[in-house]
Write a structure and sequence with these properties.
This protein has a single domain, classed as 2,3-Dihydroxybiphenyl 1,2-Dioxygenase, domain 1 (Roll). Helices cover about 20% and strands about 45% of the residues. It has helices at about 15-20, 75-85; strands at about 5-10, 25-35, 35-45, 50-55, 65-70, 90-95, 100-105, 110-120. The strands form two sheets. It has a four-stranded mixed beta sheet with strand order 1-4-3-2, with helices on one face. About 20% of the residues are buried.
């Protein structure tokens, strides 16, 4: 068994995909439509993906705590997210142990995205 994907409802699927591609270096892996609902998947180097589901109603990210994404440089990613997407920093960058540096930002719908930079 393996985790394949997590699905998030989004209000603007094109903007969301653009955010995850331009800020977090993920790539669109596939897209589909099922019963009139558009969906787009993005992924990185591993097998797991994020699935974005286009919805017409306002999105409430309260049911999702966060999505964790590996990045090469937490500071550069935050700078890009702020400049290009007006993202908020929810938790400022910090080092955990000697192994990782992390921070939390928001995506276009307000979901919290944990940025994880390996230090070792």
């Amino acid at each position: 068994m393996d985790v394949l994907h997590a699905a998030l409802n989004v209000s603007d699927i094109d903007a969301t995909v653009d955010f995850y591609e331009s800020v977090l270096d993920l790539e669109q892996t596939r897209a589909a439509e099922l019963d009139g609902q558009r969906m787009v998947f993005v992924g990185g180097e591993g097998d797991a993906e994020l699935q974005f589901l286009a919805v017409d109603e306002p999105v409430d990210p309260a049911g999702v705590d966060h999505v964790g994404i590996a990045v090469d440089d937490v500071d550069a990613t935050i700078e890009n997210a702020r400049a290009e997407w007006d993202s908020e920093v929810v938790i400022e960058p910090q080092v955990i142990g000697d192994e990782v540096r992390l921070a939390f930002i928001t995506d276009p719908d307000g979901y919290h995205v944990e940025l994880i930079e390996e230090l070792a």
